[in-house]
Write a structure and sequence with these properties.
Distance between the termini: 25 Å
CATH class of the largest domain: Alpha Beta
CATH architecture of the largest domain: 3-Layer(bba) Sandwich
Order of helices and strands: EEHEHEEEEEEHEHEHEEEEEEEH
Radius of gyration: 21 Å
Oligomer: single chain
Shape: elongated
Length: about 300
Amino acid sequence: MADYFDLIVIGTGPAGLTAAIYARRRGMRVAVFGDTPGGNIVKIEHVANYPGFIGGIFGAQLGTALFAQAQSEGAFLPMIRLDRLLPHENGFLGIAQTGEEYLAPAAVAAFGVVPRKLDIPNSDKKGIYYCSLCDGPLFRDKSATLAVLGGGNMAAHEALSLSVFAKRVIIVNPASSLMAEEALVRQIEEKGNIEVLLNANIEAFHAGEGSIDGITVSVCGSEKIYIAVSGVFMAIGWGADLGVIQIPVETTQDGFLKTDAQLMTSTRGLFAAGDVRDTDMRQIVTACADGARVASYAFEYVSWKKR
């Protein structure tokens, strides 16, 4: 027998947890699926631009606080991922990875995004990472040289985090200048062990004994140089993985969910919030705003369905 809720929320990041908090305060029965309190923000070592925290806050600390608040409001948080969301005569059927089934007249896709990867030789080998906070400590006291591919805020955060553990950090930036916030660029310039290669791209990964030990970098589209590295951290952006939603739904050319003014997708009753939807800004504060708004719209939709 399936458990019945008013709202299924897919994702335990800022958007999903905020949606759960606001929906519970409207009296909705809410089930939230995901196994990481805070979602992708736990990968951010230091969040400096979220309002209310002078001096910033650890990403994991902020994620845990959001999770605890959703729990305190009475949201159901089983700490499991949703395997798939299917259409149902009563709305939506969610099937967890553990097999349990959940029914709700409305659902919110708030599962964030996944890092983009390169399709070049040896991209399947060990030594390619996507989270400095998770994997940076592996290189502590090893005099390592690490590469970071990218030039935006994500790449800047990764490089600064890795500079604590590595002897040398090289930012391989495809653009002609760093596109990160000025405050982050200033911190990078002040670090003595971070270098920046501009107009540069990684053309190949080199693997010795199954793990990456070097990269070939093209500079300005012509000059090619080999750099020995102990690992490569990818920071070239994010994409949406919509595999859990096994329902026809309209997306942008880049694969993000299209939404209307009420954050509803092309499938009635299915809403989207946060980074997974088509939006002009992907920040923690905008994800939280989406979560608050989507809870209100979902409440109105479910109330209409019950009439």
